[in-house]
Amino acid sequence: MPLPSEKSSEKNVSALLDERRTFPPSAAFKKSANWNDPAIYDRAAKDPEGFWAEQAKNLDWFTPWTRVLEWNVPWANWFVGGKLNVAYNCVDRHAHSARRNKAAIIWEGEPGDSRVLTFGMLEREVNRFANALKSLGVVKGDRVAIYMGMVPELAIAMLACAKIGAAHSVVFGGFSAEALRERINDAQAKVLITADGAWRRGTVVPLKAGVDDALTGTPTIEKVVVLERVGKAAPISMKQGRDLWWHDVVAKASGECAAEPMDAEDMLFILYTSGTTGKPKGVVHTTAGYLVGVSTTHRNVFDIKEDDVYWCTADIGWVTGHSYIVYGPLANGTTTVMYEGTPDFPDRGRFWELIDKYGVNIFYTAPTAIRTFMRWGKEFPEKYKLSSLRLIGTVGEPINPEAWIWYNETIGHGRCPIVDTWWQTETGCIMISPLPGITATKPGSATRPLPGIIAEVVDIDGKPVGPGGGGYLVLSKPWPSMLRTIYGDPERYVQNYWSRYAGKYFTGDGCKLDADGYFWLLGRVDDVMNVSGHRISTYEVESALVDHRSVAEAAVIGKTHEIKGQGISAFVTLKEGITASDALKDELKNHVATKIGAIAKPDDIFFTAELPKTRSAKIMRRLLRDIAEGRVLGDTTTLADPSVIARLKDQAKDEG
Ligand code: WTA
User: Fold this and answer.
1) Strands 455-458 and 143-147, how do they pair?
2) Mean of the pLDDT values across residues 580-587?
3) Of 18, 149, 543, 602, which sits most exposed with the smallest number of CB within 10 A?
């Protein structure tokens, strides 16, 4: 198992590891930080279960747990016997406290409309929609699919599901109809919640049209609830007996709804993510452990104070939005900002305008966004004060030191600690990150595992490498917000995460430890790409390509990309009699977008008569990566036909 990211960007990796600058927290920040005593690491390491039990006391329980953890590798039960409700913890308990009139969600629509929901208002909206779901026949244990843009009703729908004990499966609004259909069928969802459309750069994303297409092959869907968001801008058709307007179903619904007492281990949601092979995996998160994980990390990694306005720019269709727009912040009674659109609409200053408009104190975004802002230039952020900011964070991929420094200076004005947070859909919450009142940061390093998290870097045999070494990142002990299984496929859960190293969770990421024991994440070691912080598997894109009638075979690789982290390059062999052309390239790119979504569109397609294969017919992706990135080729001795490579190289050169 080589560390491909190391191979594919050797220069970047060594630049990263040569980084020597450190940024200790200021005395003032340290003094007022939620966690500022380094002893917390030792305390948690000595007794992780005791540590997590202490954190769990921040939630409201209907029935307390009797055992913190039952662990039969790789099956975990956390907070055994405990009963609670996630929506109750995120909404009701605040609505019935001094926070009743505090802003829970500050929402900004792309066209400039805005809405503030206090905890009191949010409680009524969640209850009304929860009752509406009940009236549609949704009961505890059912699955509800959600396919919407970034509107408050998306969070309301999720919380309403949680309130009545239905599991939601949110599908990112940028996914295609086909991807939606596949996810609905895997989860066997009974109801789908959507909107007529969503605003994106001034135009409408026609969500309902996609839904109509998706639902041609989804036998389990009984009802569709449609939110009117764009109205006349994109008229839709409603199917009688199946489709209902959101405003109609809530019109008569009561604003009161008792929270369903859920077992600590009842399923809260399914979220699909890409794996190395096969179709997307339905990652299952459960009630108590997930909420303990996200609330604890949200409060302490972001150093949340009562009056903070907190903004995470992710889309709720991804795990970052689930954990750090909806569940973490709301569980902590924090004001969370939700923005519908893109950072460049109506101009490239939109994010900074919003920070000033709402007095955002904590800002959490992705390195790919930061690199885009760098390219757009300082003049946009410099038009705004940004003086409310107190802490800034990143997630989704390694941040290059240059982007870190730009973020620190241009957005943080040198006064905001930066938290570079490493985690995954499967981990549920942040695992490796600085604690802003304790940790001296180094640009490009996520620093060290949080208290209560036991992470190690191991070699191919599973032996810890120790400071200065490099290898594979594993999590050596269970943690509360870990995924519990893959929906409907427990075997795949065991196989994917727990079979590489006995008793340890395999992350799929390469990592180095520096002399101080800091973790430097190097990217995926498997065939999963990270495109603009989105996880896409090479396998999925290959499957979409070979699905096209002209394609015989395809090999896809992630190619280092200045802004996106990785771009997608596809090597395609055409069927007999098909002629290569630029028009066909476009057709294939669009075909992938139709099959998966625009995020998976290849950046470039190379037509080739053959693909480099080993004698056992395995495609040598490593060589394709070398070719795509214009590098000296690695070992080619295992190639069945070395001349294939020479031809491909010449062609790649010609096509630039
Ligand atoms: C990558 C997103 C380096 C990593 C929350 C991981 C990171 C994958 C970081 C999970 C970071 C995420 N530094 N790499 N701070 N954060 N990653 O499931 O490769 O969409 O395995 O979850 O993103 O992506 P996912």
Assistant:
1) unpaired
2) 97
3) 18
